[in-house]
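Task: sequence in, structure out. Protein: Ferric uptake regulation protein.
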Amino acid sequence: MISSSPGGLKAYDLLDELATEHASARPPTVYRALDFLIEQGLVHRIESLNAYVACPCPEHAHGFQLLICRHCGRVEELHLDEVNDQLKIRAQTLGFDVDRQTIELLGTCDACRADSKGSAGGSPITHCPTS
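Result:
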């Protein structure tokens, strides 16, 4: 379900889909499953949207950045290790111990820029860009 979505899915959207096949599905079950998928590096939580998106390259070490289209909701994942390294160094310099890092950049994708109404549909993230 998550991997076929062009953008993030909220937990209750997942619950609604799951309930069509498993009537006994409840929110705690969905949240436990999402927590497990996050721990395994298969899913990322989009903090600004309170939603979840599949990771296109779970084999990559997970310092990542997310590009989120504010019009269609499309999400792209970047792996700019130098950004993560610089943030870690700066945090250590300031005596700050980072538990979790979330970098989300909101903007407009090419498809929505081309569509003056901003209603272009996104496509799921299927690649692992490194720059």
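Confidence is low (pLDDT under 50) at residues 122-127.
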